[in-house]
Amino acid sequence: LPPSSQWTYHLDQWQHPSAVARVNNVKMWSDEHFEALKPTMKQLAAAGQKVITATLNKDAWKIIHDTGGRTSHSPVVEMAMGHGYPAIQDALDAGARPSLSCDHAATVGMDMFGMMRAVFDIQRLAIQQRQRNGEKDTQKLLTCREVLQFATLNGARAAGLDHKIGSLTPGKEADFLMLRADDLSIWPLNNAYAAAVNLMSAG
What global pTM score does this model have? Predict the structure, then answer.
């Protein structure tokens, strides 16, 4: 194999930081913990790892946006596993356009429709809470079309595959998902994006 820096795919090996703290008997997020994490992160990088799970502050989000970084969010998994409040609005505040992921099926179902609904609701909750707290000039509420793009084209961009998939564009590989719109729960079908994001489900 060529050096990992030349690999054209992403190797995802998940290592929870708490395991490193526990093995080295150091306090989570202490200076000693960060030092202990370095060898593990270097090993993962040498093996081809290009993706990490992180908790970020505003400065870090700005750096991601300014350098063209891409993020993928799994809000339902993040809430179920106690990772904190999903960072959708943090990404949007920094000007980033997130993508969505189901992450895994160990704790929640692999359901992108559920992920889209969660993002739609979580972002609304975040903005409405800010408005109730008296904040002015808050971010706009996401549209269903934007959320659908997070789940499709933005996912392809995050994986570095938007030149091949993610949108129905001449020259790209066809990637269709047929949705039934004849159920009574869908009617009246006056907004296709809203129906796909808020009313549809897998199966």
Answer: 0.73
